[in-house]
Amino acid sequence: MAKHLKNDRILFGAVIAMVFFGLMMVFSASAVIAERAQGSPYFFLIRQGGAAAAGLLGMIWLMQRDYHHFRHPAVVFGLLALSLTALVVVLFVDRTANTHRFFRIGPFSIQPSEFAKPALILFLAYFLERRARGINELRTIGTAGVLLAAMAGLVLAGRDLGTALVLLIIGAVILWAAGLNWRYFAIGAAVAVPLGIIAVLIERYRVDRFLIFLDPWKDPLGKGFQIIQAMIAVGTGGWTGMGLMGSKQKLYYLPAPHTDFIYAVISEEFGLLGAVAVLISFGVILWRGTRAALRAPDPFGVYLAVGLTAMLVCQALINISVVLALAPTKGMPLPLISYGGSSLVCAMWGCGMLLSVSQRAG
Questions:
Q1: In-domain check, residue 2
Q2: Which of 85, 95, 106, 314 is deepest in the core (most CB within 10 A)?
Q3: How far apart are alpha carbons 120 and 122 in whole angstroms?
Q4: Minimal CA–CA distance to 331: which of 251, 267, 242, 258?
Q5: What range defines the domain where residue 338 resides?
Q6: Is 3 domain-assigned?
């Protein structure tokens, strides 16, 4: 008799609530900007709504599939090859905001680095399950290390240090879950940290971001402007906020209020209570993802759940840290909430796979 599957209603509900809350906040944060720049206050809302619909359809389809189907070599290596190819090709297309991150297809854009995350997670889950008895062997470490370095290097070549860092963190978390010896993490850190420092030093704007992070008031109307405005937005919200649509900092003070700094708008309009609610929502994802990993019936399910949870929570923590001036400024969306079609679709599809693991966990 087929095993009855119990849907993870808590995780599903949290994801849906965050997506709808994100749509509301995207409209609130972008309406004035969209009307002036695009002629309609609903411009960004409509586009984000389309991405949310695509994400929801994919999420439901994926959660209904047995996650073991994702382990098929054609799926794993097909997605990996497609992802690596896209990361290479995007380096030769026209720049967007002085970076090589997007493919432009008519009025739409696709960010390959977002889809590289689930492709990396699937491969590592597949590969490490097959190499479970030799996790600390050179062949295993070398294969995983080369892939991580290749993906992160290609993303970094497109001038996206933040996503490259997220890819490395995802890989490290999965390898830790697989039981890699701590000595190899120390070796990896000894290599990655100097390379990261070099990556910062070779780009003047990254050096400026780090220095201004240490003292944003040194240049309050220049390089420190966005950090200061984010702090003002967060502080202005108080306990309960200014109310929906009540943010003043989004009116050409905050940079990218509907994308990278949407958490500042949330804090201003819904106060500390709203800001904490968002943190709790990601805490729910961390809880249910960890639960799914601990109860998964096989290593592939464990690594898949661990990687997908790390993908969502890690990126959220980086985004929120930037808004709260706890980390240097980095262009990175808040998963499930910020404007950005690739980010939203990727996050929702990742949640679909995580739900597939969760509802089949013991």
A1: no
A2: 314
A3: 6
A4: 258
A5: 9-360
A6: no
For the chain (362 residues), the mean pLDDT of every run of 10, in chain order, is 68 96 95 89 94 96 92 94 92 70 75 93 95 88 93 90 93 94 91 90 87 86 86 90 90 86 95 96 96 93 96 95 89 92 94 93 68
Residue from 315, 297, 318, 301 nearest 353 by CA? 301
Selection from 209, 187, 258, 359 nearest residue 24 by Cα: 258
| Burial state string for 9-34 with b = 16 or more CB within 10 A and e = fewer than 16 | eebbebbbebbebbbbbbbbbbbbbb
75 burial type by CB count under 10 A (0-12 exposed, 13-18 middle, 19+ buried): middle
Contact predicate 170/311, CB 8 Å: yes
Nearest alpha carbon to residue 152 among 84, 204, 95: 84
E runs forming strands in 75-118: 103-105, 108-110
Is 96 inside any structural domain? yes
Q: Is residue 4 part of a domain?
A: no
- Measured from the Cβ of residue 166, the count of other Cβ atoms closer than 10 Å reads 23
Which residue in this structure is represented by tokens 């490290």? 172
The total number of structural domains that make up the chain: 1
Q: What angle do CA 50, 53, 59 make, to 5 degrees?
A: 140
324 and 31 Cβ atoms separated by less than 8 Å: no
**CA–CA dist 287, 37 (Å, integer):** 41
Cα–Cα distance list, 58 to 9, 135, 191, 335 (Å): 17, 33, 38, 16
